[in-house]
Amino acid sequence: MIFHVLTIFPEFFEGPFAHGVVKRGKDAGLLDIRIHNLREWTSDRHRTVDDRPFGGGEGMVLKPEPLFAAVEAIWQRDVPPDLPPAPNRKTVLLSASGRPFDQHLANAYSREAALLLICGRYEGVDERVAEHLADDEISIGNYVLSGGELAAAVVIDAVARLIPGVLGNETSAAFDSFQDTGHGEGLLDCPHWTRPAEFRGWKVPDVLLNGNHEEIRRFRRQLAREKTARLRPDLLAE
Ligand code: 9D3
């Protein structure tokens, strides 16, 4: 799978993909990450990517022309011109006003051949990009970031680990979403402990040490329910 990232901060991406699961997937040839500098598709002397909002107001807005030129060039470069455009690819705008990104969307994206992630910046992106260029407009959560770069890294991490072979184990990825822990649909994972069995006076629950696997399974399920009620009551609200 190919991940294209369109950004005004290409240096930002030198760090996040140099380690861990994404690095392993790259080294194994299962995924490729290509970073594109939006300023390469500007045509003025100052390489301008932003402008003031129509109607007035704070901040600057990413202009449509470089974004359209970049996305069209990246997809054309990727697909030989004698072939029809590949349907199994998505252009995704990362924006604070997007639809929430979740595990279901990560699963859907992992079945695409390529994703092109557009990183929003400044006060926002000209709305014609969301309407006529991007297939989806997504946010990674209800908090304010300074731009889409961190969000793009989050999306790539979440999607990359679902690509068959990337985690090493072909079946684990689909099963370990918090929505499918084996403790029942829509529960958080149960808490985990490892050695030592007592640390600073805090003991690991005895049940987990007694070797009774049926009892352990019921105990973990109960802990998962309690933890979900405490930290994520919204998951139990239906
Ligand atoms: C204080 C600025 N906000 C006015 C109410 C709007 C705003 C504009 C631009 C808020 C954030 C941003 C930049 N954020 C992103 O581009 C972004 C983002 C986010 O802020 N939160 C969660 N997901 C994402 S994806 C891209």
Layout of SSEs?
Elements: E1 2-7, H1 20-27, E2 32-37, E3 50-51, E4 61-62, H2 64-78, E5 89-100, H3 103-110, E6 114-119, E7 124-125, H4 127-132, E8 136-139, H5 149-160, H6 172-175, E9 198-199, E10 202-203, H7 213-231, H8 233-236
Parallel strand pairs: 1-2, 1-6, 4-7, 5-6, 5-8
Antiparallel strand pairs: 3-4, 9-10
Helix pairs in contact: 3-5
The structure holds ligand 9D3.
Ligand 9D3 is lined by residues 94-96, 120, 123-124, 139-141, 143-148, 151.
Describe the protein's architecture and organization.
The protein has 238 residues and is of the alpha/beta class. The chain folds into 2 domains: 2-160, SPOUT methyltransferase, trefoil knot domain (Alpha/beta knot), CATH 3.40.1280; 173-235, tRNA(m1g37)methyltransferase, domain 2 (Trp Operon Repressor, Chain A, Orthogonal Bundle), CATH 1.10.1270. The chain is 32% helix and 18% strand. It contains 8 helices and 10 strands. The protein has a 5-stranded parallel β-sheet with strand order 2-1-6-5-8, with helices on both faces. A 3-stranded mixed β-sheet has the order 3-4-7. A two-stranded antiparallel ribbon has the order 9-10. A hairpin with a 2-residue loop joins strand 9 and strand 10. Helix 3 crosses helix 5. The radius of gyration is 22 Å and the shape is elongated. The model has no long low-confidence stretch (mean pLDDT 93). The structure holds ligand 9D3. Ligand 9D3 binds at residues 94-96, 120, 123-124, 139-141, 143-148, 151.
Name the CATH superfamily classification of the largest domain: SPOUT methyltransferase, trefoil knot domain
> How helical, in percent, are the residues?
25-40%
Mean pLDDT: 93
* CATH C-level label of the largest domain: Alpha Beta
Bound chemical compounds: ligand 9D3
Low-confidence stretches: none
Q: What is the rounded distance between the termini?
A: 35 Å
Give the strand order of the largest sheet, numbering strands 1, 2, ... along the chain.
Answer: 2-1-6-5-8
How large is the count of helical segments?
Answer: 8
Number of strands: 10
Global structural class? alpha/beta
What is the number of independent domains? 2
Please compute the radius of gyration using only Cα atoms: 22 Å
- Biggest sheet, in brief? 5 strands, parallel
The helix/strand series, from N terminus to C terminus, equals EHEEEHEHEEHEHHEEHH
Assess the beta-strand content as a share of residues: 15-25%
